[in-house]
């Protein structure tokens, strides 16, 4: 196979890479023809991106292999993005030219009329027949198109066809350098065994082609037989004769109209005014025209609408359309000014008199004369009439004839447009004697703002106007008899709303009457200090507000608005709201509208991550992480390498402030582990040592078994019966929270009564013979003994045998050993907010460490990945909220929340200002259902509305109270609001802390949905105009 040139695009090139380095990487796949490295600036983050083009000469099958290998191998710590480059403009132009040349050569080689040098034309033995031609008369005024373009030699006889013998006897033409005759023989073609067969039928010439004629005419003529060609010649000659006659008539008319006849002897008569006495015959204007009079008498009369001045104007308008019958005009097309003046009625005269009177008054006021020009007024133009009592009776008289006219036209009202209906032509305005322009408020405040942009205030101000709140006069939404238009979010009518408000006020009155007097006074005082909004309508339809002034202590001046606050400003704009007496939320309408306004953004995030360009990327990132580093137990090299990998990838994703923060974590190493039932029979007992457990002496221990179901049952057993034995705890699964205490406390409880080891049923509701591990804790005042988890099946079997009274012995050997604590790191990346950079931060998190069995894909690789990728996806979509979103991948979570504790200590000085909300996902990333929540009642009301936005994911469930998450419990237990992922994790503990925690548990589609939910919820919380309410305790 030949070598071809292939142009490849190379993206994600590390900065500083030279062409020689890039050439060295691609040289293994073929010959490098050309390398070009370019840079461009990313408009989203102003980062400089490097890319290039490599032209490689190699075989076709090598290119896909090259692309695939670069996707799997790193270059300078990153994966190059290699793909086939799009064809440039110059290359496309060059390719098209080459293809055109090749096509031209191919067409030239197939040209049947082209003479080759190798083959010479053999002289024809006998003269070929010549096509007959038509004779031409002397009186022909024009020649055919063929005669014009194709000169022919004169024939011996013009009035007869040339015969074959005559042509042969004529003088032979002079030989030319190129043959002008191409012969075609009769041939037959057919397909035989898939091949084209061409067989000549006769040796006679089937067709003669004259190359002296143009190719187009040859192609037309070759389909005509001899007789058909003669007929075609006759048809063309007839058409030319008709055309010649038409041209001569046209020229004669033109000259006659110009007054200059070409032939003085011949003239055209247009009328009968000329003298016919000479007996000269008139020349007919058109052929076939009868010279005799046909008796036609013209009756030319004007239509009535064309008479008079109006008719003249209609005629002028009609002629503008060149007498087109489709445009017939009548009096309806005349404008008001074109019509003849009509006699004025009494009312019109009164109106004109009133108008002149008004103009006179206006002239006296302005001191300038005003010319009363004639105006054309439309009947729909309404003018304000000045009220004059002296003219009142006269107008009443003038109204009487109109009433009679209205009665006559009552039947035609249905045909009138809605705009034609009006109550009266006159309007009267009455100005109250007490009318005055209000001045500024008595007490001016120091602040300046546009009140309607701020919403409600936390406290009332002294400038608050009193509002009439009677049942009949109080309207929050719309004034009585007002033309103002409002857009309502619900479909309820105005009457329904008012009736609902009236019922609510009645209910509030009844509740208030049933309350004690002291409580009622307190509520009344609180209501008097409540801000009623930026303004209101009175029952007369007048809008009232403290229009431009706010008191200096108004809470609306403290929060962010339109980006006025600078970086580092405290985000403390929180409205005071909460729940009503019946437990329902009472959020301001402005806040509800703001939250619901995020629905389009949430929809965009969901579509991009679940169905768009980011679909499947979350699962791919998680698979790459766990496949590369495997299990990531605290203190191990795998965990620290995974942390370095995450930091590098976060930087590549364009996240900001990417760094790590140290945390000291325990270090425990699992060694050889074995358990075997030796009496009454031998059976292997799979087990996993628990975190921080010590090992057995060398060679292990053999001891008798004591099996119990619960701590309560064990406490009833005397210490003498326990001493020197291996205690087996086989509790019944209730829930993880209730059952996990046996794993964490079994060793200490058994050691207090002298046991030499403890074995615990795996903390899982379902088992297929696989043990589950986890962390356990020794109490300070007890002797440390080995402890491990065995399978559910073996624990239940040992309990049954013990209760039957059977004596059992187990050989237990464990080489597990605790090590000195080591320093690990929390991995951190940010999407910096537009308004608040270092304060009011929204945290999204999951832990990166795992246990040493399985690969930790479910616990908690999925939670860590969706927290990290939430920032990546928002960055890629150009969505940057007001507040900073900080992704934290905790370390040392499995051993006891060490990463979270270290981070809390490092940030405790300004934590109330620094943190706004905490997210943590550590309970699986199966199909999402909604969000768990922990926080006060105000924050709960806000977060409930945010969860409703997740309807596109069918994840609107809301549960509270919860712990929020293990690592963030350092903050949520002290009043910070937080949330965790609520998902369909019924099978989570089937794989928890076991070898089954692998990528097989994770579903790509569900992981995308979790990432979309996590991203959308974090964005909305971070972008709200208010901070989430919190009651922080030290």
General description of the model:
This protein is an alpha/beta fold and 1034 residues long. Among the domains are: 4-86, 2-Layer Sandwich (Alpha-Beta Plaits), CATH 3.30.70; 604-665 and 821-1023, Aminopeptidase; 671-815, Glucose Oxidase, domain 1 (3-Layer(bba) Sandwich), CATH 3.50.30. 32% of the residues lie in helices and 17% in strands. The strands form 7 sheets. Strands 13-22-24-23-25-28-26-27 form an 8-stranded mixed beta sheet. Strands 15-14-21-17-18-19-20-16 form an 8-stranded mixed beta sheet. Strands 2-3-1-4 form a 4-stranded antiparallel beta sheet, covered by helices on one side. A hairpin with a 5-residue loop joins strand 11 (578-579) and strand 12. Helix 14 (599-611) runs antiparallel to helix 27, helix 15 (617-629) crosses helix 21 and helix 21 (857-877) packs across helix 27 (1004-1023). Residues 83-110 form a coiled coil. One of its GO terms (biological process) is proteolysis. Pfam families: PA, Peptidase_M28, RRM_1. It is found in: Endoplasmic reticulum; Golgi apparatus; Lysosome; Secreted.
């Amino acid at each position: 196979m030949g070598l071809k040139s292939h142009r490849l695009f190379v993206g994600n090139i590390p900065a500083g890479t030279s062409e020689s380095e890039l050439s060295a990487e691609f040289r293994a796949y073929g010959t490098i023809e050309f390398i070009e490295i370019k840079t461009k600036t990313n408009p989203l983050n102003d980062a400089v991106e490097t890319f290039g083009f490599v032209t490689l000469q190699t075989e076709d099958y090598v290119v896909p292999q090259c692309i695939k290998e670069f996707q799997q191998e790193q270059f300078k710590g990153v994966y190059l993005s290699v793909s086939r480059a799009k064809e440039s403009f110059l290359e496309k132009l060059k390719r098209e030219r080459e293809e055109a040349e090749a096509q031209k050569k191919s067409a030239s080689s197939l040209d049947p009329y082209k003479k080759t040098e190798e083959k010479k034309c053999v002289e024809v033995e006998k003269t070929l027949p010549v096509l007959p031609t038509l004779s031409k008369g002397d009186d022909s005024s024009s020649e055919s198109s063929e005669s014009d373009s194709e000169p022919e030699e004169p024939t011996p006889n013009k009035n007869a066809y040339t015969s074959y013998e005559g042509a042969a006897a004529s003088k032979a033409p002079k030989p030319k350098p190129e043959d002008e005759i191409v012969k075609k023989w009769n041939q037959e073609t057919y397909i035989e065994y898939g091949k084209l067969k061409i067989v000549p039928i006769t040796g006679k010439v089937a067709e003669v082609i004259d190359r002296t004629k143009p190719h187009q005419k040859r192609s037309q003529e070759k389909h005509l037989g001899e007789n058909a060609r003669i007929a075609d010649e006759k048809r063309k000659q007839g058409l030319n004769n008709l055309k010649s006659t038409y041209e001569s008539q046209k020229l004669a008319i033109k000259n006659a109209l110009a007054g200059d006849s070409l032939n003085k002897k011949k003239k055209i008569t247009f009328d009968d005014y000329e003298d016919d006495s000479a007996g000269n015959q008139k020349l007919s204007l058109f052929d076939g025209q009868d010279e005799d009079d046909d008796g036609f008498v013209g009756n030319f009369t004007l239509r009535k609408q064309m008479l008079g001045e109006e008719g003249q104007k209609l005629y002028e308008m009609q002629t503008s359309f060149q007498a087109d019958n489709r445009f017939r005009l009548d009096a309806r097309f005349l404008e008001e000014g074109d019509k003849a003046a009509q006699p004025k009625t009494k009312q019109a005269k009164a109106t004109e008199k009133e108008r002149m009177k008004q103009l006179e008054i206006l002239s006296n006021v302005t001191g300038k004369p005003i010319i009363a020009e004639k105006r054309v007024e439309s009947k729909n133009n309404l003018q304000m009439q000045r009220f004059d009592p002296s003219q009142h009776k006269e107008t009443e008289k003038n109204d009487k004839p109109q009433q009679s006219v209205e009665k006559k036209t009552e039947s035609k009202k249905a045909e009138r447009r809605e705009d034609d209906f009006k109550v009266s032509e006159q309007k009267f305005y009455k100005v109250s004697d007490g009318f005055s322009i209000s001045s500024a408020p008595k007490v001016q405040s120091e602040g300046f703002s546009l009140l309607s942009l701020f919403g409600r205030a936390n406290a009332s101000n002294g400038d608050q106007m009193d509002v009439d709140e009677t049942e009949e006069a109080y309207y929050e939404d719309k004034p009585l008899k007002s033309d103002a238009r409002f857009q309502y979010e619900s479909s309820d009518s105005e009457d329904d709303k008012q009736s609902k408000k009236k019922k609510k006020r009645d209910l509030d009155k009844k509740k208030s009457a049933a309350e004690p007097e002291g409580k009622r006074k307190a509520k009344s005082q609180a209501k008097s200090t409540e801000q009623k909004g930026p303004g209101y309508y009175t029952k007369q339809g007048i809008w009232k507000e403290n229009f431009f002034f706010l008191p200096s202590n108004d809470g609306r001046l403290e929060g962010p608005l339109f980006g006025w606050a600078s970086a580092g400003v405290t985000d403390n704009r929180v409205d005071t709201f909460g729940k009503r007496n019946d437990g329902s939320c009472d959020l301001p309408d402005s806040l509800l509208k703001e939250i619901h306004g995020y629905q389009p953004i949430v929809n965009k995030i969901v579509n991009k991550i679940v169905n768009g360009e980011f679909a499947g990327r979350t699962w791919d990132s998680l698979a790459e992480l766990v496949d590369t580093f495997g299990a990531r137990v605290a203190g191990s090299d795998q965990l620290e390498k995974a942390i370095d990998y995450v930091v590098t990838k976060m930087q590549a994703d364009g996240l900001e402030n990417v760094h790590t923060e140290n945390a000291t974590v325990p270090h425990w190493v699992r060694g050889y582990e074995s358990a075997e039932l030796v009496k009454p029979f031998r059976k292997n007992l799979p087990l996993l040592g628990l975190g921080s457990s010590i090992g057995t002496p060398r060679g292990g221990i053999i001891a008798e078994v004591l099996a119990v179901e619960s701590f309560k049952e064990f406490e009833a057993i005397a210490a003498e019966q326990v001493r020197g034995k291996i205690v087996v705890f086989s509790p019944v699964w209730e829930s993880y929270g209730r059952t996990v205490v046996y794993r964490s406390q079994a060793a200490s409880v058994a050691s207090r009564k002298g046991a030499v080891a403890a074995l615990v049923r795996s903390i899982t509701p379902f088992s297929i013979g696989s043990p589950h591990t986890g962390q356990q804790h020794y109490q300070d005042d007890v002797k440390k003994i080995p402890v491990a988890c065995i399978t559910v099946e073996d624990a239940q079997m040992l309990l049954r045998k013990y209760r039957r009274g059977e004596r059992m012995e187990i050989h237990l050997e464990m080489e597990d050993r605790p090590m000195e604590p080591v320093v690990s790191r929390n991995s951190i990346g940010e999407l910096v907010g537009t308004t608040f950079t270092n304060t009011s931060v929204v945290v999204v998190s999951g832990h990166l460490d795992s246990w040493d069995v399985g690969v930790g894909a479910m616990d908690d690789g999925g939670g860590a990945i969706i927290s990290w990728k939430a920032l990546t996806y928002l960055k890629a979509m150009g969505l940057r909220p007001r507040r900073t979103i900080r992704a934290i991948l905790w370390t040392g979570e499995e051993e006891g929340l060490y990463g979270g504790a270290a981070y809390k200590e490092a940030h405790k000085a300004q934590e109330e200002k620094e943190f706004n909300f905490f997210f943590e996902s550590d309970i699986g990333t199966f199909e999402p259902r909604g969000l768990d929540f922990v926080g006060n009642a105000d924050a709960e009301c806000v977060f409930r509305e945010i969860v409703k936005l997740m309807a596109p994911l069918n994840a609107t469930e809301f549960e509270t109270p919860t712990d929020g998450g293990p690592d963030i419990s350092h903050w949520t237990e002290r009043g910070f609001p937080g949330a965790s992922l609520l998902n369909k994790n019924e099978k989570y503990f089937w794989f928890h802390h076991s070898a089954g925690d692998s990528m097989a548990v994770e579903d790509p589609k569900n992981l995308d949905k979790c990432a979309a939910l996590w991203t959308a919820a974090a964005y909305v919380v971070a972008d709200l105009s208010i901070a989430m309410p919190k009651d922080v305790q030290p």
